[in-house]
């Protein structure tokens, strides 16, 4: 992965400051400025709601398990702030958004690179302090996520050997899930064995199948010489993804002891999501296939809840 040189266009700084400078300092003007910057923060994370916010929120609810609705907004907010921290790091450390996601804040000119970098490093202690307000264990999860984020982005782990890239993906998701699950619990200082097993299995799923997201981003990844499974192995990697998703579907059905009919339905969902990548190979279709992959991941994250409800003694 190549870091930004003189990132984006020369007029990006002017674009980012034009709105603020043109708004009058009245009450409504201040409101407009605040809404503008809140929208910018939202745009840093918008594309990851289906891939991160929804699956991990579901995961924390069933892995904790959630016993009080009072904890629900806390776990969602904790997760979103940490996702914002990861995404500001990711989006200031790679050129791919110019090609793959031009509507994000940096390539669209909503914020300057220097301001985004300041935001990125300011969010790190904010995330730690927020987590400490819940428990030391939540803070340790936040610190682990900061470490994996830095290794993945600033230390170029995402552009190193593909095995390093996907291992860091799995570890990062594990830190996300551990912290969110701690916050979801009434006792925010411990998880039971089922919770830790769920985190381990989820991290392993992401480490071995998250390259599903790379099929849609091959143009930008090739531009920055990023080593991904789709670029290295081509079309055979699509078949490998199908096999991996089906294998995980069968394995998780056995581990979480779900009934035969639910297991068949879950496995068929995995087969459909994986088979789409094999059958449809355009970038537009890969985006649709990735949507179905994320539905499969979300259902996989519900399975620990099934075990707790019907099988735990």
From TrEMBL:
Task: Offer a single GO CC term for the protein.
Answer: membrane
Alphabetical GO biological process terms: methylation
Which GO MF terms does the UniProt record name? methyltransferase activity; transferase activity, transferring alkyl or aryl (other than methyl) groups
Q: Which UniProt keywords apply?
A: Membrane, Methyltransferase, Transferase, Transmembrane, Transmembrane helix
Q: How does it sit in the membrane?
A: Multi-pass membrane protein
Q: Where are the transmembrane segments?
A: 20-44, 56-81, 111-134, 166-184, 196-215, 236-255, 261-278, 290-307
Q: A single Pfam family, by name?
A: UbiA
**Can the keyword Transmembrane be found in this entry's annotation?**
yes
Q: Where in the cell is it found?
A: Membrane
Origin superkingdom: Eukaryota
**Listed PANTHER family:** CHLOROPHYLL SYNTHASE (PTHR42723), CHLOROPHYLL SYNTHASE, CHLOROPLASTIC (PTHR42723:SF1)
Q: What is this protein called?
A: S-adenosyl-L-methionine-dependent methyltransferase
Question: Which organism does this sequence originate in?
Answer: Favolaschia claudopus
The record lists the lineage as: Eukaryota, Fungi, Dikarya, Basidiomycota, Agaricomycotina
């Amino acid at each position: 992965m190549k870091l930004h040189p003189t990132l984006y266009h020369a007029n990006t700084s002017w674009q980012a400051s034009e709105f603020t400078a043109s708004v009058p300092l009245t009450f409504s003007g201040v409101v407009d400025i605040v809404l503008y910057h809140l929208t910018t923060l939202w745009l840093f994370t918008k594309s990851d709601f289906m891939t991160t916010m929804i699956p991990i929120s579901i995961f924390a609810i069933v892995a904790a398990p959630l016993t009080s609705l009072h904890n629900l907004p806390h776990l969602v907010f904790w997760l979103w702030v940490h996702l914002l921290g990861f995404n500001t790091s990711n989006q200031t450390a790679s050129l791919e958004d110019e090609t793959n996601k031009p509507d994000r804040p940096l390539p669209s000119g909503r914020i300057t690179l220097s301001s985004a970098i300041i935001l990125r490093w300011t969010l790190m202690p904010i995330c730690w302090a927020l987590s400490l307000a819940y428990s030391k264990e939540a803070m340790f999860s936040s610190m682990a996520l900061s470490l994996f984020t830095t290794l993945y982005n600033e230390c170029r782990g995402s552009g190193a050997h593909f095995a390093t890239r996907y291992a860091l993906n799995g570890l990062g998701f594990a830190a996300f899930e551990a912290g969110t699950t701690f916050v979801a619990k009434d006792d925010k200082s411990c998880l039971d064995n089922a919770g830790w097993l769920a985190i381990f299995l989820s991290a392993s799923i992401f480490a071995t199948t998250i390259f599903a997201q790379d099929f849609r981003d091959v143009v930008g990844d090739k531009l920055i010489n990023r080593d991904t499974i789709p670029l290295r192995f081509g079309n055979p990697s699509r078949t490998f993804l199908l096999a991996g998703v089906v294998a995980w579907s069968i394995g998780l059905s056995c581990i979480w002891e779900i009934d035969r009919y639910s297991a068949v339905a879950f496995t068929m969902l995995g087969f459909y999501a994986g088979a789409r990548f094999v059958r449809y190979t355009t970038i537009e279709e890969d985006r649709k296939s990735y949507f179905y992959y994320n539905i499969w991941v979300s259902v996989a994250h519900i399975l620990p809840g099934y075990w707790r409800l019907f099988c735990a003694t």
